[in-house]
Amino acid sequence: MNNIVTTTATSTSEPTMTSVALLEVINFYRKQEGKGSMRHSNLMVKIEDELDVLDLQQISYLDTQNRQQPCYLLDEDDCRQLLIRESKACRKAVVQKLRQAQPVAIPQRSLDDTLEGATRAAKSLLSLVDDLGLSDVSKQALAANVLYDCTGKEYLPLPKIERTLYSCQQLADAAGISQKKAGSITNKLGLKTDERYSVAILNKAKYSDKQVTQHKYTEKGREVFLKYVKQNLEVA
Q1: Which of 134, 161, 165, 202 could form a disulfide with 138 if both were Cys (CB 3.0 to 4.6 A apart)?
Q2: How far apart are CA 140 and CA 29, in angstroms?
């Protein structure tokens, strides 16, 4: 299991692990335990289901057929969330490697080869969602995110949003609970179904053709969430 802890030249100094490297550790311990291995495509689906992918950085790697494929950079909290159902030995190994290994810089991809493709992808995606009734602001945000994810540069600025919006992870941090628990509470309170409390942002999944709806919570939604946590959960 070599070269599994990495950081990008433009990121913070906090160690991160690629999803490819995380999968290597998972399958190493699964083999020792006599369990079946996991494919990277399955791990990518798991990441997009359990984490807020808008807060993650995507890079690429070369697969066994020398093709560029997407993967994510994951910090310690991300890895802990994904490893809930893995063995204790696996979780411990990942945390130790993240905390002890020296960061290794990842070369930045050339933008010239990706801008044209990113522009086509943004136009294609907008044509697919044209019948969904998205506002012009949402369409601009969608196109801007696609271009940024593919090139790493802000060729199209994100639209200005006057109100502050919070991710599920930010709600969890404010309440001192896990992101998974926070997600369960937002569902219980129905915050995702009331536009007073949240805004649905449509985004293309990084590893598949499915559309992923990400919810950002308004100040009012944050107040309702924190009030519930204070009244119903014991603070350690």
Answers
A1: 134
A2: 44
> Domain ends where: 106, 121, 143?
106
**Predicted TM-score of the model (pTM):** 0.42
Residue keyed to tokens 């890895």:
79
| H helices present in the chain, as ranges | 19-32, 40-50, 76-82, 88-100, 112-128, 136-151, 168-175, 179-189, 219-232
Distance from C-alpha of 230 to C-alpha of 207, rounded to nearest angstrom: 38
CA angle 16, 19, 25 (to 5 degrees): 90
Residues 99, 133, single domain; the answer is no
Per-residue pLDDT tens digits for 33-83: 888 899 999 999 999 988 888 888 888 888 888 888 899 988 888 898 898
27 and 51 both lie in a single domain: yes
CA 191 to chain centre: 20
Residue linked to tokens 């990113």: 118
Pair (100, 14) in one structural domain: yes
- Return the exposure string of 4-37: e unless at least 16 CB atoms fall within 10 Å of the residue's CB, then b: bbbbbeebeeebbbbbbbbbbbbbebbeeeeeee
Residues 13 and 74 in one domain: yes
- Same domain? For 100 and 121 the reply is no
| Angle (nearest 5°) at CA 30 between 29 and 36 | 160
The angle at the Cα of 106, spanning 116 to 54, to the nearest 5 degrees, equals: 60
| Domains held by the chain: number | 2
Residue numbers of the domain that contains 172:
112-232
